[in-house]
Description:
Elements: H1 2-106, H2 110-145, H3 150-170
Helix pairs in contact: 1-2, 1-3, 2-3
Amino acid sequence: EYMDSNKYIEHLVTQLEEQRWNLxxxxxxxxxxxxxxxxxxxxxxxxxxxxxxxxxxxxLRLESEKRLREVTLESERSRAQMRGLQxxxxxMEETVRNLLQHQGSSGPNGEGTxxxxxxxxxxxxxxxxxCKEGMEKNHGAIDEDSxxxxxxxxxxxxxxxxxxxxxxxxx
Length: 171
């Protein structure tokens, strides 16, 4: 009976040790699972943050695309207005040439032609001043838009420069 009690105690001690090991392994498993859950929660929070940032970026991209379309339309309008101004300058130059030819051939009636020329020159100066103001406004808008359209900027600046030179020559 004494031996049986010792064996029984050893058996209980062994079971106790096994229970301790099992408990320890379970605690490790619980700790590992808690770490995984915490990591998963952090990833979820990070995922939510990334989704939010993605939505913000998408919104900004859409706004940029909208602004680009607006700038492109404004640029096209400015180009059309620039072409109209070029045509108007060409007509003005032709009119001035015709008047100068007419003045040269008028001979004694030059005084009447001179007064016509003065009136026309005043009108031309007024028109050119208006055109110049319009071009400066458009040039300011084009300068703002030029950041997004750098390839056509040089061409537009060159056209504007040529038009301003022609305007000065006409004045």
